Amino acid sequence: VIENVKKQHSEIGVLYRNEFNREALSKIFRENALEFKPLFSCDIYVFMASSHPLAGKEKITFEDLRPYPNLAFGQGDNNSFYLAEEVFSTHEYRQSIKADDRATMLNLMIGLNAYTLCSGIICEDLNGNDYKAVPLKETEKMRIGYIKRKGAKVSHIGELYIEELKKYKEKVM
Prior knowledge:
This protein is α+β, with helices and mostly antiparallel strands.
């Protein structure tokens, strides 16, 4: 996301900051003439198949998750804890599986009762109702926002996209 905005392949890029990655990302943004525009804060959720044994719980702890495999996106050349797509990238999981595409992740969720951590903003149009997000019992928050090139004006279509993100957040949270 950062590289795409830096190299002008993308006008904006959506990502999250938290206490763990805030300083590292802020430094990267400064060095690359990018700016972070916060949209909203949210709790952290466990994203899993609706059939997962924990899917009926109101809140889930790390101890609850211990017997199940954690899923994370592979980071390729940028294999930094600070640049991980998932929160708690330094947590020691009993089992962790890296995948680099969404379809594989979704299949592993169903086939292995695996899970990943996320913002809880799940699009049923994309995922159907076979998946569920349950709050993780943690106090840390994710700050969702977008980056853009410093001083660059966001296009009309970019502004429309940002407004849709804000609306979608209000609809699902």
